[in-house]
Amino acid sequence: MSGELAGRPPEAAGQPSDLELLEALERDPEALGPLYDRHSSLVYGLAMSVLRDPAEAEDLTQEVFVGLTEHTFDPERGTLVAYLISLTRSRAIDRLRRGGRHLRLLRQWHESAPEPVTAPNPHQATSAKQVSHRVRAALAELSDREREVLELSYYRGLTQAEIAEQLGAPLGSVKSWARRALLSLKDNLQDLVAG
Q1: Domain 1-113, CATH 1.20.1050.80 — does that match?
Q2: What are the structural domain ranges in the chain?
Q3: Tell me: the pLDDT tens digits for 130-154?
Q4: Are 165 and 172 within 8 A, CB to CB?
Q5: Is the predicted pLDDT of residue 118 greater than 70, yes or no?
Q6: Is residue 127 predicted with pLDDT exceeding 90?
Q7: Does pTM top 0.70 for this prediction?
Q8: Which of 49, 89, 158, 189 is surrounded by the fewest CB atoms within 10 Å?
Q9: Which residues contact 102 (CB under 8 A, 6 or more apart)?
Q10: Residue 160 contacts residue 175 (beta carbons within 8 Å)
């Protein structure tokens, strides 16, 4: 049992504190080991309570600790334990949302899927290539931020609030970028939508 769990600071047990290990992590990736040993059962337990899937909980536990190497923890905002709890809970909920969204989309697709599709004829193949080229061209006309917001929303399944947090941008800006991007795509691809 670590010194923190026994109610003593880690220094009293002859072990470095979480903050010392995080500082060492900037120079030595091996410092992640003691942090993992000290807190992985807490992270895994929380992940398991939300996800209810051992493989998903293990994967999330690894993700959370690897994230510590990216220097995302700010000791002025609280303890490492509080940060790990918040991060684990947030990412576990994100996984549930993405999983639920994917299942809903699969169900909708399955319910609305037409009979098995045969190979396209040459005219259909050419038409599909032209549409694909038009869509790529329309996406290329968007600003980098507009395109990034759409990718995070449609490919990663993030909400606008989550996108704002990830980009470090105000929510209003994210909403504006998304709206401008969608309006631009609608204008550029109007004939495809109408046809």
Answers
A1: no
A2: 1-113, 121-195
A3: 777 787 888 888 898 988 888 888 7
A4: no
A5: no
A6: no
A7: no
A8: 49
A9: 157
A10: yes
